[in-house]
Amino acid sequence: MRGWHPGDVPAVLAAFAVPDMARQAARPIDTPEAALEWMGFWGFRDDAQAFAVTVNGEVVGNVAVSNIDAHDTGWVSYWTSPHARGRGVATAAAAALAEWAFRERGLFRLELGHRLDNPASCAVAVRAGFAAEGIERAKLRYGDERHDVERHARLATD
């Protein structure tokens, strides 16, 4: 894990060109300016920190903790580029982020959620030490479609 750099624009554009990633972005990330804006969004917040995930120097994903609150709780998110999926990259990054958040940010609880139709993300969460806590019905909306979300959490004491 390392901070995002302007030279990472091509990796961000490639990741968000994939349909499953594009639909999760708040707005299209399809120009170098949009990619820089996305990276900048993470760089100027007190309640969040994002890291580029690298393998052999190549950016293959993102891992972040955001919405850090007064209860020492944060929200974890992660993604990997299609060619890096299924290799344990997201699991290793999510576990490393959790350790960083507990140690460096002093957080106690980390939460994350995934659509029920995304078993790969569920596997990442479980393998990274996040226990399932329940289903949030119709929590997410992409276009006209609503999705149930399974919530997971990991505590500093786990």
Automatic annotation (TrEMBL):
One GO cellular component term noted in the UniProt record for this chain: cytoplasm
Database matches in PROSITE patterns: GNAT
GO MF annotations, alphabetized: protein N-terminal-serine acetyltransferase activity; protein-N-terminal-alanine acetyltransferase activity
Domain N-acetyltransferase as annotated: residue spans: 1-158
InterPro entries, alphabetized: Acyl_CoA_acyltransferase (IPR016181), GNAT_dom (IPR000182), Ribosomal_N-acetyltransferase (IPR051908)
Pfam families: Acetyltransf_3 (PF13302)
Name this polypeptide is given: N-acetyltransferase domain-containing protein
